[in-house]
Amino acid sequence: MRPGPSQDDVRRQNLGALLRHVHVHGATTRAELTTTLGLNRSTIGALTADLSAVGLVSEGAPKETGRAGRPSLVVRPESARVYAYAYSVEVDRLRAARIGLGGAVLDRRDLDRPRGLLAAEAAPLLAGAVKEMQQLVPADAICVGAGVAVCGMVRRDDGLVRLGPTTGWVDEPIGAALADELGIDVPITVGNVADVAAFAEHARGVAAGCDNVLYLYGDVGVGAGIIAGGRRLTGHGGYGGEVGHMKVARDGRPCECGSRGCWETEIGEHGLLRAAGRSDARGREALLAVFDAADRGDARAQTAVRQAGDWLGFGVANLVNVFNPEMVIFGGTMRDLYLAAAAQIRSRLNSNALGACLEHVRLRTPKLGEDAPLIGAAELAFERLLADPLDVG
C-alpha cells in the first residue's frame, strides 16, 4: 500500500495552488482564496504568511470595499521583485523581456534578426539585451529562471532545437548558448513558439477557462500549440504541433522541411507572396502589403488571399475534426490572414468540419497579441517556482 502525501507535501501543494492563483488572476482577497481553494481561513492566513516571508506576495487592505465590517486582506504578487527573463527567437527578430510574477511586462528589448543567424550568434545579442535590462533591476529582486520561445522543433528533455526550417536551425543548443553568455545561475527552459503562446493565452488570455484549444502561429511556416483537457499536448519528445507539415497536396510544392505539399507551402509567407506575384518580397510587412492591396481592390492580391484563406479553412477543419477544440486562435501571420479572409475560412470550415465538432468552436485572435510568445516563455520559467514556492533563490 502506497503511503499518502506527508504534511510537507500537502503544504507545498497548497502553497503552489495559492501562488498560482494569485499569479494568474492577480490581486485576490483572502476570502476569495478561501472559497476558490476550498481551504479554511486559518490555513489561507498561514499560507499567505509563508509566501510573504519569502517575498513572493504582499498583503494589504483593499482600496474600497463598499461593504460594512472588517474588509478581507488582499493578496498581491510581488511583480516588481520576483521575475523571469523571456526570449522569443523569431524569423526576422529577436525579443527579450523581463516579466514579473503575475505576468507584468517590466522591461523589454526588440532586435532585428538577419535570417540565417544561428544560436551561437543569436545568444550574444539576446544576452546583451538582458544585460541592459539588468541595470534597472532592484537590488533585492529575484530572478527565478528564463524561458525561450523558438520557431522550430524543440526536444523537451534538454531544449535542443532539433529542426527549425524557417530559421535554418538544425540541432541548435540555444538554451546552453544563452546560459554561457548570461553567466546567471538560473534554469533556462526552451519551448516551441506556438506551444508557449498557447500556454499564455490559456493561462491569462483569450482562452482562459477553455480546456481544449488550438493556437495556430504563422510566420514563414506554421505551427500549433495544443491544449487538450487543460494540459499542453506536446508529444513524446516535445515535437507535437507541427501542423504546417500536414500533407495537403500530393504533388504540391517543395517545403523547407524537405517534403512536398505541406500545408504551410499554401498558407505560409512564401506561398502567399508567390500567389500574389511578389516572390521577391519577404517578411511580415510584405504580407501586410498584400492584404492591403487586396482590400484596395487589387485582383491578384485578392485571389492570393482568397486561395490562402480557403487552404487555411481546409486545414483548420481537419484539426477541428481531430482535436474537437472549444477555440481556435490565430496568431502571428495567421492572425493577419484570418482577419483578411475570415469569410472564406469560415465557409471552408463549415463545409469540411463535422457538425458535432463544429457546434461549439469559436475562432479568435490573441488577447495578448504579439506578447503571447514572451509571456508564454516566462510561464515556462515560473513553473518551477509555482511547483515549490519556498524553493526560491
TrEMBL record:
The keyword Cell inner membrane does not apply. InterPro entries: ATPase_NBD, ROK, WH-like_DNA-bd_sf, WH_DNA-bd_sf. Keywords: Kinase, Transferase. GO terms for molecular function: kinase activity. The keyword Flavoprotein does not apply. It comes from the Bacteria. Transmembrane segments: none annotated. It holds the Pfam family ROK. Belongs to the ROK (NagC/XylR) family. This is NBD/HSP70 family sugar kinase. It comes from Micromonospora vinacea.
